[in-house]
User: Fold this.
Amino acid sequence: MKRSVLSLILATCTGTIALSGAVVFSSAGASSDSRVRASEQPTSRSGVVKYAHGETFPTNAPGQHLFLQKVVIAPGAQMSTHFHQGTQVAYVSAGILNYDVVSGTVAITKPNGVSRSVVGPRTIRLPAGSTLVETPSLVHYGSNAGTTPVVIQLASLLENGAPLSTPVGLPAVAPTVIAAALSSSRTTLHSVGTNVRYGWNDLEGDGTFDSQPVHVEMLGNVAYTAGTGQFFGFVTFTFHDGSTLGFQMQGQATTVSETLVTVAASLGVLGGTGDYAGATSGSGIFTGSRNGPVGSPVDATFTYTLPPSPPS
Assistant:
């Protein structure tokens, strides 16, 4: 059942994202058949080949880039130690993968459907039919100690501009973190049906960046049932020198208890002014909570990264 669900996800992705064909990249269609086709025999000098099947920019995940790919590891070959600037789901469709968790935690599901979390440092063997969920904090690498190629199907949701894998020693750009207490300045909310509220909410507050004040404005459109549901909108940071940086957001509110609601959203850069006039890409997340209904104050944290500026 686990394999059937993952195969359906991969098939759905293949049908909805822009297909790239069998583009091959040197590297340091999911199949239920564990045999390896002749076209899947690795030919790169490293013994590891990546095939790009397609990619897209999901509208429901601003600032994120979705990839569908396949990796083939030749017998005796090993990938470089790396991590991902996002979340990756992997399915071993052929061979036996030796998987080294250098640091962090990986969630695995064996072919028999048994799931567990593995904490590094540790090496595990994953036969065909196994799945993994890799998070940004996971440092790892794969290798093939067998006599036939290992084939892995991958779906990766990464920050815009991030490589498919980031080698250890080449860290990701340090993120910017801005925390602010946001209060509603204007709201237009309507109630219909049973516990359904929809409308918009304009929240504002102040935080700090590089020990300087920054003003935060969030304009959110909401549609909640009993406090839970999706929201979308925009976030604008106004820095102490007047520069601005704007994001679009797409997220989810979840009612935890009668008094606590948590919120989380992905962020994608729209553009900026002043010091950020050249900003055209970048991504991040917004997390927060409120103790009350829509319109109550929100304790918010924004974490985002921008591509490094080219040298002048």
